[in-house]
Amino acid sequence: MDLIVQRPEGLYCPAGNFYIDPWRPVARAVITHAHSDHARQGHQHYLAAHPSEGVLRSRLGDITLQTLAYGEIINHHGVRLSLHPAGHVLGSAQVRVEHGGQVWVASGDYFVSGEDDSNNTCEPFDPIRCHCFITESTFGLPIYRWAPQRAVFDDINQWWRRNAQAGRASLLMGYSFGKAQRILAGVDASIGPIVVHGAVEPLNHAYRAAGVALPATLHATELDKAAIGRALIVAPPSVQGSAWTKRFGDYSDAFASGWMQLRGARRRRAVDRGFVLSDHADWPGLQRAIAATGAERVIVTHGYEAIMVRWLEEQGLQAGAFQTEYDDERLATADAPGDPAPAAETESAA
Ligand SMILES: [Zn+2]
Ligand SMILES: [Zn+2]
């Protein structure tokens, strides 16, 4: 019997009678991470990894939440369940379920790249041996290959430094939860002051409370006028073209996302620079992660399912797909409620 199946409410474990990242309200939800398409309102009981508690509560308010340390095992209706680092955002977890001699792992979103990088704002992805691996595939196309993060941050710092020398503010847009903190942790804070948008600061607070080192950040109103030209401003994509940006005068703008690998996406974004920085696995990373599980069966979710399934079958694996209702980096997944909705990009990335 399959340990995890697809139901209209979401991915479901029949033996344990719980859901994983359900998109409709259920009695028991195991949440892989606090991005809004995975952690939704309205469930009666939530189970998540301990480091995600601050972010989950700041986004979902007063929920009934039970947390587990990474690797801690609970027994639920005879199903052994544990959560393991996914390297995607603070508190992100893979869900391991074991029952009747079978081990299945649902990855949630995860970050592994072909470059052996890890996300330095959370616990790195930990491959778990299993019979069946349910993998995300947001960037499951061979064109997606991330450069070493150090090189990406060198580019970002160089862009910021040049702007500062020219007296122009640098506006770098990225999603409020996850991407913004990766940017903050990766830039050279000696170049100038760093301002963050109001949607980013509560997430920074949760990261700092969880022990993640981030440089000092200012609210826009705290920035000395004379320092505007040296400032780096980190804000969600929804600020593009908004009145909020006017205070920074003649600024240079940039966008940080895995989608920036596509020239079309950069053009449609109409920004000065696109930095390819993703919280998801690239194509070589997906392959490495899948191989490391030793799974003979793989179920693909979250994008490019058909292409990934075909590739897996060519490798001699048993492969299938689940249709999920998760968004991805293109959409408003990580912006705080109440933000003006960023324009959804329609990217047919072939
Ligand atoms: Zn996510
Ligand atoms: Zn996702």
Question: Care to describe what's here?
Answer:
GO terms for molecular function: exonuclease activity; ligase activity. It comes from Ideonella lacteola. InterPro entries: MBL (IPR050698), RibonucZ/Hydroxyglut_hydro (IPR036866), Xnuc_lig_assoc (IPR026360). Residues 328-350 are annotated as: Disordered. It is an enzyme of class 3 (hydrolase). By secondary structure, the chain is α/β, with parallel strands linked by helices. It has two domains: 5-144 and 279-321, Metallo-beta-lactamase, Chain A (4-Layer Sandwich); 149-275. 20% of the residues lie in helices and 22% in strands. The protein has seven helices and 18 strands. Helix 1 links the parallel strand 5 (45-49) and strand 6 (65-68). The longest helix is centred in the middle third of the chain and has 17 residues, at 149-165. Mean pLDDT is 91; it is low at 330-350. The structure holds zinc ion (ZN) (2 copies). Residues 33, 35, 38, 88, 109 line the site of one zinc ion.
List keywords for this structure.
350 residues, Metallo-beta-lactamase, Chain A, 2 domains, 7 helices, 20% helix, binds zinc ion, ligase, Xnuc_lig_assoc
Kindly summarize this structure in a few lines.
GO terms for molecular function: exonuclease activity; ligase activity. With 350 residues, this protein is α/β, with parallel strands linked by helices. The chain is built from 7 helices and 18 strands.
